[in-house]
C-alpha cells in the first residue's frame, strides 16, 4: 500500500521472479501489497528495502503500489470496505487521517505488537496518538515532518544576533530587533492556524477536548487565549496579511522576494525559496520553534504518515512483518536519511543530526502534537472557524468573545455524524 514505491518495485520483482515463485525459494511466495503515497520514499529506498526484506522473508514478495494524495481518502475507504484479491495489505495514510479509518472495525488492532515488540512508548506523540482509539493502536508511526523557523543568516548578522533564540521572550526581542531598516522581522500570515495550535499547546491548552464521548471546542479556555495572545505579538512584527493563510500568497515567495528575516515552515520549503532566489543559497539557517524555556523547544503540529493494515487482509502475518520492518529502527532511520524526514522515535534523531534543517525539525518533533483524534475533525477544517477567529482578533475583535464563538462552531462541527 505504499503507492509510488511499489509500482517500480513490483515491476522489477516481476522481471526476476514473476512476483510469485522466486528462484531459489523453498516454495511459493505470498504477495503483500503495500500502498505508499507519491514521493514518500525514493525508488532507491524501495529497492534496498525490498531486496533486504525478501531475502529475510523467503515466503513473501512485496508489491508496492504508489498512490496520489489527491482523492486518497475515498480510495482508502473503499479499499477498507471492499475485499478484493488485489487490494492492499498495508496502507500509508496521513497521521491525522487515521481516526476516520478506525471507525467500523476496519483496521487490524496492533496494540499487542506495539507495546510488546515495537517500543510504542518511545514513538513521537504526534504520530502515535492519532493512530489510537480508546487506547488501542491501529496506526503505526512511520515518519514525521514539522515546522521550524527558517531564517536569513545575513539579516541576523546585520542585527547583531549571533545565536538563534531559544525562548519565546528572546524570540520576540530578536524579532523586534530584526524588524528595522526596511526588513520584516518575521512574515507570519494571520490565519496560520497550525502555528497557532503549537502556541496553544505550549500553554497547556488545546483546540478541542473530549469528555464522556463528547467533543467541545476550547479556544476560549485561558490557556488557548494566551496562545493566541502570543501569536498576535509575533505576527505584528511583520507585514503578513491578517485575513489569509500561509499559502495566499505562498510564504516562500515572500521570503525569497522581500527582506524577510524569518518564516515558520518545514525545512523542505527552502528549495522553493532557492528556486525563486538562488542568491540565498548560503544564507538560510534553521532553528526549532522556541518554547517557554530554553531547554525545551516549542510544541509544533506534527505531520507525517502512519501505516495501517486492513482488517480483511488475507495475509495478516505478512502485513505485520512489513509494518514491523518499515517502522523498525533500521529502515526508519534509512528512510529519514534518504528523504530528510524525522524518524518515528526521538532517540533515533541522531540519524539526521548532520542536516541542519532536519535536525531542527527533529528537535521540535519531540514536542509534536496532532489535531484532535476524532473522525469529525475533518468537518472543522472544511469550513475552518479557527482562521476566521484569528483574523477577527488580529483586527481588533474581543479575544474572549471571538474565541467563544469559534469554540461553539467547533463543538457543533464535532457533534455532526
Would you write up a description of this structure?
- The chain is α/β, with parallel strands linked by helices and 417 residues long.
- 42% of the residues lie in helices and 15% in strands.
- The protein has 18 helices and 13 strands.
- Strands 1, 2, 3, 6, 12 and 13 form a six-stranded mixed sheet that branches. Strands 10-7-11 form a three-stranded antiparallel sheet. A two-stranded antiparallel sheet has the order 4-5.
- The longest helix has 17 residues, at 399-415.
- The two termini are 28 Å apart.
- Residues 1-26 have low confidence and may be disordered.
Question: How many beta strands in the DSSP annotation?
Answer: 13
Averaging pLDDT over every residue, what do you get? 91
**How would you characterize the largest beta sheet?**
6 strands, mixed
Termini separation comes to 28 Å
Beta strand %: 15-25%
Return the structural class. Answer: alpha/beta
Shape designation: globular
Return residue spans where pLDDT drops below 50 for at least 5 consecutive residues. 1-26
> Could you estimate the helical fraction of the residues in percent?
40-55%
Number of helices: 18
- Rg of Cα set: 22 Å
Blueprint of the fold:
Blueprint: H1 3-17, E1 30-37, H2 43-56, E2 60-67, H3 72-81, E3 90-94, H4 98-102, H5 111-116, H6 125-128, E4 132-133, E5 136-137, E6 140-146, E7 148-152, H7 153-158, H8 168-178, H9 193-202, E8 208-211, E9 214-217, H10 222-235, H11 251-257, E10 262-265, H12 269-276, E11 284-287, E12 300-308, H13 316-327, H14 329-339, H15 356-365, E13 368-369, H16 377-382, H17 385-394, H18 399-415
Parallel strand pairs: 1-2, 1-3, 12-13
Antiparallel strand pairs: 3-12, 4-5, 6-12, 7-10, 7-11, 8-9
Helix pairs in contact: 1-2, 9-10, 11-12, 17-18
